[in-house]
Amino acid sequence: MAERDSTHGDQPRVDDEEFVSIARDPALARLLRKQLESLADGRAGAVLAEMAKEVLSGRIGLREAVQVGSYEQELLATAENFERKWDEMSELEKSQAEAEGVKLLRQQQEEIDQELRDRQDEASGPKRAGHSANGWSAY
For residue range 37-87, what is the model confidence (pLDDT) as tens digits? Predict the structure, then answer.
């Protein structure tokens, strides 16, 4: 679902739901969206920034975007670079990176859970004071 985002020029932006079918997990979907936002800021170059902006705007789906020639080439080069760096890491470094990934996913799930609790609290509305025989009561 696209929504307006004032932090990005008030352009339509897709939300986490756009990525659940790919990620198959709400926390992974949120992390994927956040990674696309990082790419959109140009951290990985102009080509991936363009791809991320197109996906986040809803003009193209992620599955379709990775099949566009220039995007596909850049993603493959980035993946090869990552694989090369991963292979150069020690087992300790790999273990630390995996632990950091687990921590990031846990944080995303905690954010989602908190947002759900907040929505439930808003939906239940404010608690009204009631009247009892002894005076006002908070229930």
Answer: 999 999 889 999 999 999 999 999 999 999 999 999 999 999 999 999 999
3-class SS of residue 45:
coil
- Integer angstrom CA distances of residue 91 from 60, 95, 96, 98, 99: 38, 6, 9, 10, 12
Burial of 115 (0-12, 13-18, 19+ CB in 10 A): exposed
Three-state SS at 121: helix
SS3 14: strand
Model confidence pLDDT, tens digit, residues 13-43: 888 888 988 889 999 999 999 999 999 999 8
Q: List, in order, residues 6 or more apart from 84 with CB less than 8 Å away.
A: none
Amino acid at 61: G
**Of 56, 17, 35, 13, whose CA–CA distance to 105 is shortest?**
35
